[in-house]
Amino acid sequence: MDGETTTHTLTMAEEEEPLFSNLDLFLFTLIVGLVVYWFMSRKKPEPIPEFKKLDVPAPTTRETSFIEKMKKTGKNIIVFYGSQTGTAEEFANRLSKDAQRYGMKGMATDPEEYDMGELSRLSEIKNSLAIFCMATYGEGDPTDNAQDFYDWLQENDDEDLSGLNYSVFALGNKTYEHYNAMGKYIDKRLEELGAKRLFDLGQGDDDGNLEEDFISWREQFWPAICQHFGVEASGDDSSIRQYELKEHPDLKMNKVYSGEIGRLQSFEVQKPPYDSKNPFLAPVTVNRKLNEAGDRHLMHHELDITGSKIRYESGDHVAIFPVNDSALVNKLGQVLGVDLDVVFSLNNLDDESNKKHPFPCPTTYRTALTHYLDITNSPRTNVLYELAQYASDPKDQENMRKMASSSAEGKALYQNWVLDSCRNILAVLEDMPSLKPPIDHMCELLPRLQARYYSIASSSKVHPNSIHICSVVVEYKTKTGRTNKGVATNWLKNKPVTDNGHKSTIPMYIRKSQFRLPFKATNPVIMIGPGTGIAPFMGFIQERAWLKQQGKEVGETVMFFGCRHKNEDYMYREELEEAEKNGVLTQLHVAFSRDQEEKVYVQHLLKKNKEALWKLIHLENAHIYVCGDAKSMAKDVQTTFHEIAEELGAMARTQATDYIKKLMTKGRYSQDVWS
């Protein structure tokens, strides 16, 4: 019985056990709750907002086809200019205006802005003509803006220009070795490629009278062109404006140019790279007088280029943008009776022109006359011609037009009254009281104030963050009793290191040069640089000293310097004598031209040391460097080397001349000269 009871009890216990334990129920409830929570709490997908499509204008591209532009504007004459200082561009603009006077339509153009390969298409335009106003720069080189065109002419031997009519006017200086080389090359090269020359090559000599050369050529050029195209040479004498005046009485000053060369407010926010259109504002850290006595003022300036990313090498040039004397600017305002602080723009009447303004606009008349316009050089004849209409005295009108003519009397009057008397635009206005031109027309006609170039007087190996300049202040009395002052040197002279607690700055950029030390430091160098021509050689000497400090073997370093008086204008005397003492300069020869009765110049010292020099040049592969005045010194130095080669090399004069020319070709005779 007990056994049966036990069995029954176990069976009942098994039947009463639940399907899920409490733990199972808890876990099940938890899972269900989590699932419900996930469904309830998850975010609904947000609708994607519809953005309205913006109408973005297509980026504008500059027209690179001068053919299409000429067709569009009905022009048949195009004047290309290769210009470094603005003169060739000015002549191109004058020829372009002339075309209108002769019943044709012209445009002046920078070859850098267009595809010059289109010259072969110019024949598509009836009675078309390409004129080239080409300046030569440096040692027979093209100007910066004509470099690409020059390269294109050299590289394209198969180009067919048989449909192209052309004429060339070359601008140069006879004191230079390669006089008008660029103009001559283009004239010859275009003919080689099949183009037709419609008028003879014109050559302007800046050592003589460039303006007169241009006028004489132009006076014969237009009748010949009119005859060729069967156009009547009427020569309308009326003044032709290229720009129209617009004043801005309510414009905010942050929209007004205040001296910037390119981008508005580029002097407030500086951004590299720095060049002619975007100069760097370099703080002046040193401004010291180099001479202890005498009536001249020789200067040494140091510019800080820290953080600018500007790099330079010994022999390069620094370009600075000077500012006109405020006293001169104020006098112009007084003579013309105008408010110089009026904000204005000069807008090109030709909407299709790439050149919208003659200088950065909008600006004030004060800024234009201070930063953008050349008011110190004598005005060219075209300025006198255009402004003559504003003279109320008929005699003044007659004289101004006469000076702009090609007559012998007119040329003589311009030479005597304007050039020989060094009259600038202010002097012209003062001496012709009846002449009262509108200031906007005068601003349209005056040439641009150009950057000034100086040979750098330091080495980047020694001064990587500093650029040194040496110069002499230009100031002289004119025949009219006025005192004329050089724009850049007087501005530099008065540049303090700090200006009312602020850093005094100079807008500048670097222009590369071929004036370089030999690749091999062991090559001897012979440096000839009187006066401020010593500038690049200070950099050369610093670099040779640095090379010696690096343990490099350095060849002989010979310096020929010249000045007037030992105790007055012996520039960098301490530095030169220290370099000689330390063996950096193996020879230092100084010519003091006026310390004795008979004048002594560097060429005399060259002749005196002819044996040592000939040995260095002929046997030891020496490199010769000449820096300074092109007109006299550089020529006399070259003649002296001809004589040395003739005498010690036992050569005929023609052989000696060829010998020196070969040195130049090989880069062993380099010149950095100016006139």
From TrEMBL:
Record localization: Endoplasmic reticulum membrane
Ranges that cross the membrane: 20-40
GO molecular function: flavin adenine dinucleotide binding; FMN binding; NADP binding; NADPH-hemoprotein reductase activity
Binding-site positions, NADP(+): 296, 532, 593-594, 599-603, 636
One GO CC term on file: endoplasmic reticulum membrane
EC number: 1.6.2.4
GO biological process: response to hormone
Topological category with respect to the lipid bilayer: Single-pass membrane protein
Catalytic reactions on record: 2 oxidized [cytochrome P450] + NADPH = 2 reduced [cytochrome P450] + NADP(+) + H(+)
PROSITE patterns listed in its UniProt record: FAD_FR, FLAVODOXIN_LIKE
Cofactor: FMN; FAD
Entry similarity comment: In the N-terminal section; belongs to the flavodoxin family.
Protein name per UniProt: NADPH--cytochrome P450 reductase
Name of the gene encoding the protein in the UniProt record: POR
